[in-house]
Structures are given as structure tokens and as C-alpha cells.
Amino acid sequence: MRETKGVSVSVSSAIERAVRVETKREPLPPRERLQQVFEIEDLSADYGSNPALKDVSMEVYKNLVTAVIGPSGCGKSTFIRCLNRMNDLVPGFRQTGTIRYHGQDIAAKDVDPVAVRRTIGMVFQRPNPFPKSIQDNVAWGLKVLGMKDNLPERVERALTQAALWDEVKDRLKVSALSLSGGQQQRLCIARAIAVEPDVVLMDEPASALDPIATQAIEQLLHELKSEYSFVIVTHNMQQAARVADMTAFFSISRGDEGERWGELIEYDATEKLFTAPSDKRTEDYVTGRFG
Amino acid sequence: MSAADLGMLQRPNDRLRRRRAVNRGMELLAWLAAAIAVAILGIVVWSVAKRGAGELNLDLLTKPPVPFAIGPVQQGLANAFAGSLVIVGLATAMALPVGILVAIYVNEFAPRPIRLGVGLTLDVLNGIPSIVIGIFVFGLLVVGHGQKGWVGAFALAVLMLPLAARSMIEVLALVPGSLREASLALGVPRWRTTLGIVLPQTVGGVVTGTVLAVARVAGETAPLLFTSSIVGNQTSWNPGHALQSIPVAIFELSEQPDPADHARAWAAAFVLLLFTLFASLSARWLATRSRRKIGRAGR
After folding, report:
1. How far apart are CA A233 and CA A74, in angstroms?
2. Is B49 exposed, middle or buried (0-12, 13-18, 19+ CB in 10 A)?
3. Are residues A114 and B189, on separate chains, in Cβ contact within 8 Å?
4. Which among B112, B180, B186 is the nearest to A141, CB-wise?
5. Of B181, B177, B172, B182, nearest to B203 (Cα)?
6. Quick check: B186 and A145 CB within 8 A?
7. Which of A219, B70, B165, B234 would disulfide-bridge B102, Cβ 3.0–4.6 Å?
8. Which residue segment(s) compose the domain that B24 sits in?
């Protein structure tokens, strides 16, 4: 990693306490110079008659970590699951708007969700390894997707990238369920990156983990973002401040008849969003006055 | 709590005493009901064992019956045991694959309305009396063609299908959705996910459901009376002919005037009972084991 000037964040004492993180972050180039991965326009989603998201428009950039933060029920998970069509599996789910992935609208009817998920991987909130051996967890996707050449090397590479190789190299045939929660989650990350996706979506990947395991996963994001683009949902603001280059703040809006839905309030460079938010609601949230 | 309430705790009044009596009475009734259920099983097992166990010997299992036997001839029911094995085995081979496929379709692929519709259909099918299934298969396959072992197996398969499908649906529902999501998120198609991730989790459940269904239909008599009951005394393994079976043999022997025949009927009943008990208990054991395994996977 290139040596860069550490940026310490400080504005109000409240923010400082929330975000006292020394991040070795390279300054972001201007947004025009960043390559877009996703261009999301007027994305709305609902489950049956319950609206979940309304009119979200934002871009996600290549080789960055993009965090999505916000209070419970603000549609963060719904949003991220739209990006690889995981919501197709939910009965009653509907969405409108466009999600262009490298220019192609992946929300369109004629797009095969299996192909979408093939290049846009996902890691879930709770570690969900297959009840197979550690090796087979990583190798299974590779086998099914026809990436059978150099299988052992691919497995080793993915486990190394997920910072798990040293811990498991002597027991690859052991059941993945014997691993600790943090190890299981890193195994899930290894499984997701083994099939060489372009983007990895993470839905609160550390919320079920202890601080040490969380740190290991955050470290991973720093190291892997040169190869992948990450979108990470988190309810942990410090985590967003530590790992993300860009941060989107979602909040809950209420209609006249008591209906609630999630909305994108502000989207900006993480540093800017945490230190000089332009919306009052963002400021209230990041300073801990709300949520 | 006020002082008055505390006093009530120490000096039970009439109302409290009455409540306690009602409580005790109800508890006793519930206990009695449970005891009756257990006792009925106990009485059935004991009475069948008392009359049948003495007659049970190797000859019964290996020798065919000898009609109009004069003198001490070793009589057996080998034809019935062999026939039951063939018929129930064939029935399982017919019903199990269909039941599993129905369950996979219903649980993994079908939209909600179809899922509910098929579920209801299975329940209705399960509720149809076995004699109705018997006469239906009789009209469909026996009239004009004669009785055959495989036709009896088909009738039993119709009875097994809803049992097999229902239990498989339950097992599939136990497989955590997070495993399916994990596989689908890799870009793996639905059918590969089902084959590679979901089904391996259900092996224990499939065995359990099968054992229960087998135990249930092994004693079915009515459908076999129509489809596979006009038989000789030779032991045959050929499902192309009508085959004797344990339940039909019990029924026929119990109609005979000879007390020796009655004794053999009891012995056959005892074998059937042992088989059912063994199957139910092992199914229970397998189910607990596989449920624990699936539970671990989902966490």
C-alpha cells in the first residue's frame, strides 16, 4: 500500500468521538474521473403494498468501498439486494427505475438474474457457509460455474485473499461449520471472491461478529478494493468511516397516511459526509442525535 | 403488593381452595387420557405378542403353507412374507421418486397459489380411504387383466405418495433459506442449488419419511384384496403374478376354521407389529438426528 498522509477527522467533539479513526485513505480523485460501476436512477421498491424505497439515484464507483448507512428500516438491505437481483426471490417484491451496470440495465425483464449474480457477488449478514468442507465451500461455486482449471490454486488464492489461508490450510477437509463465526464469514468472503466477481455486495457483514473478527474483515476490504468494487451496508457508523471511500446515508420518510419508506438523503465522499454533511438529517444521524 | 394480599397468601380462602381442587382434577383427567393412549398401545402389543410370539419360528418365515395337511407338517407363511417384500418394495420404488419430485417442485419452484393447491391435494389424497383406492385400481388395472403383484404395489404407491411428498416438503422447509441465497448469490442456477446444496441436507429426512410411509402401507389390506389376493401357496417373487402378502394372509387365515391357522395369523400379525414398531422408532431416531444436523447448518 502506498504511504499517504493520514487524514484525521475532527469537527465537533461528538463527531470526533463517533469517528475517531486514523484512516490511511488516499484522497479521492474528482468524481468525473472515477469509473462508474452502477448508475442508479429513480429506484423505487416495494414489498406487496408496503413501500421500501423511493426514488434512489446515485452512482457506485469502481475500486472503491461504498458504504450505505442509516437507521433500521431505511431500506439499506433492500437497496443492496436490488443490485444483484436477490430480491427477485422475495414473493411480492416489485421495483421500478433503472440500475445500469456498466451501462446495461440489469433491472430489465429480459436480463437473466443468474448472470447478474455471477458478476455481482454477495456476502450476507450472518455467515452462511455450506455444510461442506472448507475446501468445498470455496470450490463448489468454481466447479458449478466451470472454473475447474487450477482448482486447488484458485481455492488457495481466494482463502489467502480472505486472510483465512494460514488458519485453515492444514484442515481444508474439515467441515466449515467447525470454524468460528469470524472465520466462517471470511470463508463466505473467500467463496464470493473465488468466482472472480466484479462487484462484491456486503449486507452488514460484521454485525454478527466480535470486534477482532470485524477488524479482520475491514482490513480485507482495504486490501481487496484494488481488485473489486465493494458496496457495504452497515448500521455501524464508525465502520463506514473506517472502510468506505463514499458513503450514502439513507433515512426513513413518512407519508400522510403513516406509511414509511427509505430514501437516499445524502451521498458523498465519506469524509465530507461525516465532517461536513450538507443535510441536517445526515448531521443529526452522524452526530448521534437520531437513530 | 399490599399487606392484605400478603395475608391471603398465608390463609387460603375458599375460592383459592376450590381453584386448587379444579386444577388438580383437570390435571388428573389429562394424565388419565395420556395413560389410556399408552395403555392401548401396551394392550395391543401384549395381546398380539401373547398369542403370536409362541408361534413365531424360522419355519413360519421360510416354509410355504401346505393346504389340507394331514399330520404334523411344518407350515409357514413364506409366500406372504416374500410377497409383502416385493409389493411394498415396488410400491416404494414407484411412490418415492414421484413424492420427492412433487416436494421439490412445491417447495423450491412453485408460486404460492400452486404450493397451497398441491398441499391441499396431497391432504385430500391422504384422506381417501384405502378401500376406495383399492377399488379404483381394481377398475383401472385389474378388470380384464387379472390380479398382479405390481398392480397391488401400484395401489399401495397411491397411498404412499401423499405421505412421502408431505414428509419431504417438511424436510425441505427445514433447510435454511440462507443456504439457498448463498448459492444463488454465486450465480449458481436454481436447479444446481437444489441438487447441490438443498437436497444433500435432506437425506436423513427422506429416509425417515420413507420408513414411516413403508410402515404405514405394509399393513394395508383393502387395496391388496382387490389387486393381489387370489394366490397359490408357492413362494413367488414375480410381481407379474398375484402375490400373497402378510395383511391378506392374516385376514384369510383368521377366516379359516382350523385353530392352527388362527395361531399362524397371530404370528404373522406379531411380525407385522414388530416391523411397524421398529420402523417407527428408527424413523423417530433418524428424524431427530437429521433435524439436528440441518439445524447446525442453518444456525
Report:
1. 11
2. middle
3. yes
4. B186
5. B172
6. yes
7. B165
8. 13-55
Residue A2 belongs to a domain: no
Tell me: do B130 and B44 sit in the same domain. no
In the predicted model, is pLDDT for residue B27 greater than 50? Answer: yes
B297–A126 C-beta distance less than 8 A:
no
What residues in B contact A144, CB-CB < 8 Å? 186, 188, 192, 196
What integer pLDDT is reported at residue A269 of this predicted model? 92
Complex confidence, ipTM: 0.84
Number of folded domains in chain B?
Answer: 2
Determine the Cα–Cα distance for residues A182 and A180; give it in Å rounded to an integer: 6
The cell numbers describing A291, all together, are 437513530
- Chain-centroid distance of CA B50 in Å reads 24
| Residue A78, domain member (yes or no) | yes
| Judgement on whether residues B235 and B173 belong to the same structural domain of the protein | yes
The answer as to whether B5 is a domain residue is no
Q: Is B3 contained in some domain? A: no
Asked if B113 is an interface residue toward chain A (Cβ–Cβ < 8 A), one would say no
Confidence of residue B71 (pLDDT cuts 50, 70, 90): low
**What span, in angstroms and rounded, lies between the C-alpha atoms of A149 and A153?**
9
Q: Is B196 on the interface with A (CB under 8 A)?
A: yes
> Could you give the count of Cα atoms lying within 13 Å of B187 in the half-sphere of its Cβ?
25
Which CATH number fits the domain that encloses residue B204? Answer: 1.10.3720.10
Residues B68 and B51 in one domain: no
Within a domain: residue B206? yes
The answer to whether residues B265 and B118 belong to one domain is: yes
> Which of B188, B192, B290 is the best residue to mutate to test the A interface, defined by the most A CB atoms within 10 Å of its own CB?
B188
pLDDT score of B144 more than 70? yes
Percent of chain A at pLDDT > 70 equals: 90
Shared domain check, B77 and B18 = no
Using one digit for the tens of pLDDT, what is the confidence trace for B125-138?
999 999 999 999 99
Among partner residues B111, B181, B201, which is closest to A131 by beta-carbon distance?
B201
> Each residue of A202-250: pLDDT tens digit?
999 988 888 888 888 898 898 898 999 999 999 888 899 999 999 999 9
Residue B179: which of A117, A130, A192 has the nearest Cβ? A130
Flag whether residue B181 sits within 8 Å of chain A, measured between CB atoms: yes
Confidence of residue A289 (pLDDT cuts 50, 70, 90): confident
Of the CA atoms within 13 Å of residue B78, those in its CB half-sphere come to: 15
Q: Does B116 touch chain A (CB under 8 A)?
A: no
Quick one: B32 and B87 in the same domain? no
Domain shared by B150 and B191, yes or no: yes
pLDDT of A64: 92
Rounded CA gap, B229 and B209, in Å?
28
Min Cα distance A225 → chain B (Å) is: 19
CATH number, domain containing residue A38: 3.40.50.300
Determine the distance in angstroms separating the CA of B196 from the nearest CA of chain A, rounded to an integer. 9
Sequence-distant (≥ 6) Cβ neighbours of residue A279 within 8 angstroms: A249, A265, A266
Which residues does chain B have within 8 Å of residue A145's beta carbon, measured at their own beta carbons? 186-188
Is the Cβ of B197 closer than 8 Å to some Cβ of chain A? Answer: yes
- Structural domain includes residue B118: yes
- Inform me whether the C-beta atom of residue B292 falls under 8 Å from chain A C-beta atoms: no
The minimum CA-CA distance between B112 and chain A, rounded to whole Å, is 8
pLDDT higher than 80, residue A13: no
Q: Does B183 touch chain A (CB under 8 A)?
A: yes
Can you give the residue range of the structural domain that contains A39?
15-23+34-286
